[in-house]
Amino acid sequence: MENQSPKAPHDALPAGSSASSPRRLLVTGASGFLGWHLCRAAQATWQVVGTYHRHRPPLPGVELYELDLTALAALPPWLESLAPDAVIHTAALSQPNRCEQEPDLSHRLNVEATRVLAQFCGNSNIPLAFTSTDQVFDGQAAPYSEDSPPSPISLYGRHKVEAEALVQALHPFAAVCRLPLLYGPPSPTAECFLQGFVRTLRAGQPLHLFTDEFRTPAYVEDVAAGLLLALEKATGLLHLGGPERLSRYDFGLRMAAVFGLETALIVPGKQADVVMPAPRPPDVSSRSDRAFALGYCPRDVEAGLKATKALGAVIN
After folding, report:
1. Domain tally for the chain?
2. Are residues 211 and 261 in the same domain?
3. Residue 57, preceding bond cis, omega within 30 degrees?
4. Which of 31, 82, 83, 135 has its CA 20 to 30 A from that of 248?
């Protein structure tokens, strides 16, 4: 395929309801916590195609493909045959500890697969939104904006910084979306940390949470909407954080209050007292002013937790 001169994503996107037929959006990682919610949200305006690795997610109306993104040689011909009109790349090895333990797999999935996707989208002149992370920062100079220089302290963070640079070099009009800690109702094939917290407290067990690790958590459906917005309106770096800076411990207290759980079981702790394979930055709270100006509107933590509780039947 010949290289074409790139143009901004909103020039390449359909006009929405005025289009004669929905265009095809490829979502990688459709079986993941974020990917599943994103596929559901995108169906309002796109014909959605999703990839999964092992666990086929129940997504009526979504065209699903089992795909190993680390099989790099097979990706370009598959993408050529699929011919999507846009791509949102959410698939990743996103557990920092596992990235430290399996560095080759982390690089292959988080960096090399991203390179292939960015090259295809850049050459095809189609919109791309890539999901990065707040873990690209060392936690010493929060709150972070898009202008803050990356300073990762974990392999996961370093690989995401490497992937960000590749995306920006290969597809200058792509949106590189740094995501915060996500929470909300689980998908049928993936949970977030919230479900484990709830189960622990419901079992009457102590829940140990850090008082010195700060994030700007966001409700997963709001971030899914933010990614779709970024695909249409954004280029370059974009933070999709939530509106509040909270420690893990404070988040746990808010969660217990909303779900009617025993706060006395939540035990405060310190990052420094726990040895983990991957170092964790103490404060990666982010500023998302650019996204807010585009129309990104994440709800506060109490509202997000109440929305999750309203779907309580899906929390085991």
Report:
1. 2
2. yes
3. no
4. 31
